[in-house]
Amino acid sequence: xxxxxxxxxxxxxxxxxxxxxxxxxxxxxxxxxxxxxxxxxxxxxxxxxxxxxxxxxxx
Length: 59
Known about the structure:
single chain, mainly alpha, 80% helix
């Protein structure tokens, strides 16, 4: 996955934790729309691996 997409996903997690859900979804959606088909699986795995980043919880 390109660094710009990973950065956008991390920013989306920050926005979610700050209760800025609309901005978080817009940021993540823009990143996913830029992703190539090859990157989609990697993005899904990143989201699975970093779910706690969005909630602020620690597993």
